[in-house]
Structures are given as C-alpha cells and as structure tokens.
Amino acid sequence: MKKIIASIAALGLWIHSSGVANAKQATAPIVSKNTANNSLTNNSSNISNASLSYSSNDEQLIAQSVARLNFSWRIAPFELAAVGMSIILKGKKSDFDALARLLASGHDLYVVRVRLHNTGNLPLRVYPQNIKVYYRNGSTSVIPVPDYRFLQPDILRPGYYIDKPVLFIAPSGLNLLRDVRMGYRDSSIRVINN
User: Fold this and answer.
1) What is the pTM of this model?
2) CATH of domain 68-193
C-alpha cells in the first residue's frame, strides 16, 4: 500500500513539474524573427528554442517593477475641530502658550486629509515628512504627529492606500482650496499628485 501511495505521489510530482516547465516555456517569445511583412507568425521551431531562463531574467524583472504612488488631499474640517477640542480638553498650559505664540506670529495650524495609494507593484515606504505644502510665495512640510490617528511612517503594500489627516503650519488666512497646493516628494517613487 505504501508503495502505491509513493508511486502516485511521484507520478503527481512528475506531471506537476512538467506542467510548470511548459507554462514557463509558453511565456518565452515564440514569434519568428522575420517581421518584414509586419505579421506575427508562430513557427514551431521557435518553441523548441525557447529558454526557461528568459522569464526569470533579472533585468526584465527589474524593468517590470514599478514604484508608483497616487497622492491626493482634501480639507478636513472635522479633524480640525477634533484637534482643537483635544487641545482645549487635554491641553496643558504649555500647549496653550505655544498655540498663542503661533497665532501671535501671524501663523496658523492647518489640518488636511491626505490619501496615499500604492498603484505600483512594489511595497513603498511612505513618510509624512515627504509631503510638501506650497502656498503663495512659500512652502513647508507637514508636522509629524505621534498619534495613530494621524499619518505615520508606514510600508504601503501594492493596491493598498492610507487615508489620514496631517498638520502643517502656514500663514494665517490661507484659503485651502484656492491658495494651497500639496505634493508628495520621493525621488525613488513615481508620484502622481492629484
């Protein structure tokens, strides 16, 4: 009985491994090199010349790897109200003093909601500090907030997104929809800023 089970298992492995090899061969090019008449022809001799190493070529895999990120943002009035209430309810005297100095300097605290969507096929490391805010004749970066409700450094898997609020300081009186532009900056990622 054990010999029969071992024989069936060996036969199954043999069938499976030959099927895998055929699947890999099918991904190798089988088009003839004669393309002068712009027609694609399948010559049977090309199938026997197919190389299994073609589909696992490192250069080809690197070329197919895409680090791409869609970045968008929107105003966040509810998050701004929550931050304000948190400062009022849980704030210390030093928090109120810092906020008063900020407002007295002609600046204000802004909260917006950002969405980072990995549309490539590689995991991406994303950081709040890479978000830049442009207004009138100046720019700033967002402020990292050590609170899970705000955007934190993270690894974003392909097909996934993060949608969280961020804070930044800019001159008071800015109209977020008219005066502010935002973008994500990372030279290792192709970023589409919406």
Assistant:
1) 0.62
2) 2.60.40
